[in-house]
Specification:
Oligomer: single chain
Number of helices: 23
Radius of gyration: 26 Å
Strand order of the largest sheet: 3-12-9-6-4-5
Shape: globular
Distance between the termini: 58 Å
Helix content: 40-55%
């Protein structure tokens, strides 16, 4: 995607730089770093407290992992079951192989209603496919109703967090956005608006209320789909989702095919782990569930319901035995809130609607690693493992990162979105492979290794602080370790009577 949507840069913007360059610019913004540090530290502390209250958290985590893995192994069967159940309940199911097909389906469905505006529940899937931009191109305006998404939309900005898209904004910035932009989208902000949370929330409530009451079409995603009944589930904390799901006459839900859980009993596991992992709440304030349509104009719920099942590269991810675990993700964002890289660089540096650790493994698999930004994302991590520790479905993100780094270094054909893309090894990787071959040669020759260690120790005063040539890219973001005055072998021989260990 490229261009703008109502003055807002399309995400990712054209020619988005690789992560190291984008992150380098981000860390030089003290306001951004302060906003991120305050928000992520607050959320992670509350999450830790909420999780500690549950004595069987480890068992719930393992159960979530097992349910997701089972569903992915039998995804073909459960997708058919979902389609049959939704159809039996009065809904219509559409299959979208990629973003273009999904956007075309949704646009045509809205056009069939004769409406020119829609209200939206916060949805990562619709952001992924650029639905707002596709609708605008056909003269249909989409109104985001989640508070953080509203801030991003009014500010002509881009989301920077999975759960809190406006996490990079502080209260003063939000007040200025509301005061400046609300009148262009509907009801203006109240006179004398301050930056207190209560006043900002009230301004958003008044602004959105008229849209809720006027809209005939709602668009949502879903956190989960229950295969046995065709029930869709949205969890949220503000009530805007409840309004979008119950008031419009037509509801269109765009849902990734991996969001299925087989049974209601399986759903119960995630309704315990998701709130605690995301918002540090014991239970979600609003859990909306709907099955098909309503027969009465006076009853809550849509009279017409369409489910768009989105692939967009997910079956390609499923084919990767290591990378497929990314499809377990329930979008809780816990990994973002503990990641030291995300905390300093922010979400925009990732060039994807999925930032942070999960974005570093999901985006390159969904989009392929042919572009500069996607090839750099697997390296947007220190591999500290904090993301794996907090993941409620036990995605081993460091393992997948290393796996994807190997893919980038080796190059070769990769299937992405149904298209075969031939990759070239990234710049500098030839030198990296040469260094690895040299290390292998030295480690298999003890005499050469001993000589090299002694020479390196005796000349350590003359060693540079950074590597020259291709190695400059490596040492540009790392400190070179200081060599000891004496190699370990020599120290061992000196302190153990001249004897080398045979172990």
């Amino acid at each position: 995607m490229s261009g703008t949507y109502l003055g807002m840069p399309v995400f990712p913007p054209p020619a988005h730089p690789a992560f190291p360059k984008a992150a380098h610019e981000a860390v030089r913004n003290p306001t951004l770093r302060g906003n991120l540090r305050h928000a992520t530290h607050t959320i992670r502390a509350k999450r830790a407290t909420a999780v500690a209250e549950v004595s069987d958290w480890a068992a719930l985590r393992e159960a979530g992992k097992q349910i997701k893995d089972h569903t992915l192994r039998h995804l073909d069967r459960y997708l058919v079951q979902v389609e049959e159940a939704v159809t039996a309940a009065g809904g219509t199911v559409h299959w979208a192989a990629d973003a273009d097909e999904a956007n075309r389906i949704v646009t045509e469905l809205v056009q069939q209603t004769g409406e020119s505006e829609v209200v939206k529940v916060k949805s990562m899937a619709t952001q992924e496919i650029g639905l707002n931009e596709a609708l605008e191109a056909e003269g249909i305006r989409a109104y985001e109703t989640d508070l953080a998404e509203l801030i991003v939309q009014l500010g002509k900005d881009r989301p920077s967090h999975i759960l809190v898209p406006a996490i990079h904004r502080n209260r003063g910035e939000i007040r200025d956005i509301f005061t400046r932009e609300m009148s262009e989208w509907g009801r203006p902000a109240p006179e004398g608006l301050t930056d207190t949370p209560a006043e900002l929330a009230e301004a958003a409530r008044l602004h959105l209320r008229e849209k809720f009451l006027r809209a005939k079409v709602g668009i949502s995603g879903a956190n989960f789909m229950v295969a046995e009944t065709g029930t869709l589930v949205v969890v949220e904390s503000e009530g805007n989702g409840r309004m979008c799901l119950t008031l419009p006459e037509t509801l269109i839900s765009v849902v990734g095919i991996e969001k299925i859980v087989p049974t209601w009993q399986d759903l119960e596991v995630f309704l315990q782990t998701l709130p605690r992992s995301s918002t540090a709440e014991r239970m979600n304030p609003y859990t909306s569930m709907w099955t098909g349509t309503t027969d009465s104009e006076t009853a809550d719920g849509p009279q017409t319901f369409h489910l768009v099942l989105l692939d967009n590269g997910r079956t390609d991810v499923l084919a990767d035995e290591v990378g497929r675990q990314a499809l377990r993700c329930i979008r809780c964002s816990a990994c973002l809130n503990v990641c030291p890289v995300y905390e300093r660089a922010g979400g925009h540096a990732y060039g994807s609607v999925y930032p942070g650790p999960i974005g570093a493994i999901l985006s390159p698999q969904l989009r392929g690693t042919a572009s500069e930004i996607d090839a750099s994302l697997p390296y947007a991590s220190s591999l500290c493992g904090a993301c794996y520790d907090v993941c409620p479905v036990a995605i081993d993100i460091p393992e997948v990162l290393v796996h994807l780094r190997e893919r980038v270094v080796q190059g070769g054909p990769v299937i992405s979105g149904g298209n075969k893309v031939v990759l070239q090894p990234a710049k500098g990787h030839a030198a990296e492979r040469a260094a690895m071959r040299a290390a292998r040669w030295a480690f298999t020759r003890p005499g050469a290794l001993r000589t090299g260690q002694r020479l390196a120790s005796r000349t350590r005063r003359f060693h540079p602080r950074s590597l020259p040539g291709p190695g400059k890219a490596w040492s540009g973001t790392r400190d070179l370790p200081q060599l000891p005055k004496e190699p370990f072998r020599d120290w061992w021989q000196r302190t153990n009577g001249g004897k080398e260990s045979t172990k």
